[in-house]
Structure formats: structure tokens, C-alpha cells
Specification:
Length: about 120
């Protein structure tokens, strides 16, 4: 059974930091790049970052570039997203997803499998 389980969300003040984790199981980790997505109420889902454990490729949306950092631990089948310098507009449910590709596209991730999400709320 494919599972992607996110953790690490919470409430933080603007300028603060959070570290999200995505634990994956049920599929061959290196066969799929792992993406992070977010969706705020009334807004479309946005692919914010991606990491490939196979070829080391990464992707960041312009909206998070320079503030978020993605990393991958193949030994633990886990991908992390470090969120720094958070802004109120970063408030959303953050999901991780396994891309159907093993690499990160320059156009952003697409989720073949997706987790349930973790809420990130940034207060001003």
C-alpha cells in the first residue's frame, strides 16, 4: 500500500521557520521524485518544490525560492522541506506527493500519489 505521511506543520509567526517531513512507503523511493505542494482556501494547488533521490535534481517555485530548502534521505525514505522566513501568504495545507517521474521537471512536480497534508499557518 502506497503511503505518504506528512508531519511538522503548525502555527508560526511571520519570519519564523518550520520543518516539514514526508515519510514514504509502499513504492520504490528512487523511482519517483517527491514533490511538495500547497493549497490555500480558494486558491489552486501549487507545486512548491521537488527533490529526486536518483539524480539529485530539485525544483523550487519562484514564490519560495531562497526561503525553502528541500532535502531527501533515501535511507529513511523521507523528504524534508525547511521553511524559513515564512510569510502570511505561505499559509496553506502542505502535501507531499510522489511524482510519476524519477526526476524533477523544470515545470514543477505532479503527484501520482499524495499524502493527506499538514496545515501551516503563518500569523502576521
Amino acid at each position: 500500500e502506497v503511503q505518504l505521511v506528512e508531519s511538522g506543520g503548525g502555527l508560526v509567526q511571520a519570519g519564523g521557520s518550520l520543518r516539514l517531513s514526508c515519510a514514504a512507503s509502499g513504492f520504490t523511493f528512487d523511482d519517483h521524485a517527491i514533490g511538495w505542494f500547497r493549497q490555500a482556501p480558494g486558491k489552486e494547488r501549487e507545486g512548491v518544490s521537488c527533490a529526486s533521490s536518483r539524480d539529485g535534481s530539485t525544483y523550487y517555485a519562484d514564490s519560495v525560492k531562497g526561503r525553502f530548502t528541500i532535502s531527501s534521505d533515501s535511507a529513511k525514505n523521507t523528504v524534508y522541506l525547511q521553511l524559513n522566513s515564512l510569510k502570511p501568504e505561505d499559509t496553506a495545507v502542505y502535501y507531499c506527493g510522489a511524482d510519476y517521474r524519477h526526476y524533477c521537471s523544470v515545470y514543477g512536480p505532479e503527484a501520482l500519489y499524495r499524502g493527506q497534508g499538514t496545515q501551516v499557518t503563518v500569523s502576521s
